[in-house]
Amino acid sequence: MRKLHWLVFWSGVLLPWLAALYLHYWLDQSDSWSPEQPYRGLISVLILALGMVISFVLHGRLKAGVGK
Questions:
Q1: Residue 5 in 3-state DSSP?
Q2: First to last CA, the chain
C-alpha cells in the first residue's frame, strides 16, 4: 500500500511538468509556431518554467500535508 501511495504522490506532482513538456512538443509538431516567430525561445522557457514551478509548489503542499 505504501508503494501505491508513493506512486500516486509522484504521478500527481509530476503531472504539471509533463503537461508543460507535452504542450511544448505539441506546439512544435502541429506547426502552431515557426522557428522565425518572435520570442519563441522566451515562450518555450516560460512554458517549461511554469510547469516546473507548479510541480514544485504542488510537491511542497502535498509533502506538508502528508507529514501531518
A1: helix
A2: 18
